[in-house]
Design brief:
The complex is a heterodimer. Chain A is of the alpha/beta class. Helices cover 36% and strands 15% of the residues of chain A. In chain A, helix 1 links the parallel strand 1 and strand 2 (29-32). In chain A, helix 1 (13-24) packs parallel to helix 6. Chain B contains eleven helices and twelve strands. In chain B, the strands form two sheets. Chain B has an eight-stranded parallel barrel with strand order 1-2-3-5-8-9-10-12, surrounded by seven helices. Chain B has a two-stranded antiparallel ribbon with strand order 6-7. The longest helix of chain B has 23 residues, at 246-268. Chain B starts with 6 loop residues before the first strand and ends with a helix. The chains are: A alpha/beta, B alpha/beta. Chain A: It comes from Lacticaseibacillus jixianensis. Chain A: Keywords: Oxidoreductase.
Amino acid sequence: MSEPVIGIIGAGKLGSTLARIGTSRGLPVMISSTHPVQDLKWVIDTLAPGAVSATDQDVIAKADVIILAIPLSRYQDLDPAAFAGKVVLDATNYWKEVDGTHNTISSFTHSSAEVIQDWLPAAKVAKAFNHMGYHDLEIEVDRHPDVPRAMAFATDHDDIRPLVAQVLTAFGFDPFDLGPLRFGLLLEPGSPLFGEAIPRTEFAAKLAAIYASPFGQQIIAARGGEIK
Amino acid sequence: MTATNYEFGLDTFGDLAFHDDGTALDGGETLRQVIKEAKLADDLGIYRIALGEHHRPEFAISSPEVVLGAMATVTNQIKLGTAVTVLSSDDPVRVFERFSTLHGLSHGREEIMLGRGSFTESFPLFGFNLEDYNSLFEEKIAMWQKLLEGKPMNWTGKYTQKLTDTTVYPRLPQGETIATSLAVGGSPESIIRAVAYDIPVVIAIIGGEPIRFRPYVDLYKKAAAQFKKPERPLGMHAHGIILDDEAEAVEVGFKYIKAEMDRIGIDRGWAPMTRDRFEFEIDKGSYYVGTPEQVAQKIARNMKALDMKRFDLVYGTGGQLLSQREATIRNFGERVIPRVKELLGGE
């Protein structure tokens, strides 16, 4: 398989870091932000040399995989029609410092990635790149070249699983398939898996014990049982 | 600051400390201890001490200027700063009044570091909406810069009071100002903004390999050229413990620095720090933990790699025993700073 073109929407901490990891590993990367391309370009040329600064429209049209690296609360800025048929990796998390204290998006009943999938019904959404801090993404890739860290993903679209796994591998991680998108809730802030940059076996052990944690208990309380 | 003129300082958030027998100091005792430590730092010739504003159980300092005012009366040359003042949830006029008061008390040794703050307790505490995080900061920093002009002021804002031909007292003496810097983390936008404001930047490099921040340093320099603003000297801030025995420093660090990071992690949904990660931070990352020579080598190496002119060491992280805190301060002043200067080839 040839390398998929990686599109990143959002050029903040996470977006620029992912762009840098991608280009440093030889992947073709396009990135867009809320700033005009000429204002973004000199920033990206410095932070992620080799990544192409573009408009959202360009990124959506030309990339094989589109990573959402925007504040979660801005998901309704995304044009559902433009994403029809696109593969989307949702790397967002609800973060009150950015998204505000009135959280109407994430809860213990569903994954915020399901909200994104509902907003982009014709896109194929996977949740990925969200359970590691943006600073850790870079550190952990380089620290453990021999034992790559597990990067979990979840999606309802079986046909994109190989592509998602390929992208996560290309970024230097060990893809860990959690199953359908609703399982993405297990990766969100407060979860024992959130913030974890550990090998597959340790990740699997933590996952197996998740319903014993306060976070897991809150999921059971909210959903009336474990996520099935 | 000339090219070879480096600044080395100490930072503390007023972490509740421990007596050597393990009993805890309360908030007041910790505050008085910090005053003693500022006096020691002053005697050692350390350039600055800077205090963080927090509103949390593990830190005694919520009103840094009051503490700095007390320090002003028992010290002679050390700069008295904040790291940081959370301007977004404060009133810039009152901040100006407190710092111009400190200017008078300290013969102009006050410094303010503005930051958006990585903690958010101050927003609900003072009646601000976290939703306005960015716009509050933008407006208040503009107001702060206007206040520094020291002239009768006209101001209309969305989040701030209207001022009409208003003078704020005490006035700064003619030609004097309040030294202001801006704290930034890993956000490209905040680096660019600092250049636009023409305020010197201090980067919190508290985890991972410091060299990873080189792109942000380059971005700062490029932004200065882009906006035709002067390149100001850059600074960095990081946690450290400096003891004569390396193994002891590592254990003290693992006990106290890890405890503090884990405490913060609970609020933010992070996993606890592993021993492996902690040791990585000492070996290659952002913890300056070890003997004076080890720490000096590491500081010099990273300052050189990142073109830094200022290094502020956070001491007493997680509390620590009084003797451990004192050892870090003494080692920093007596052995590390001279050695770093020597390694950097500066004065």
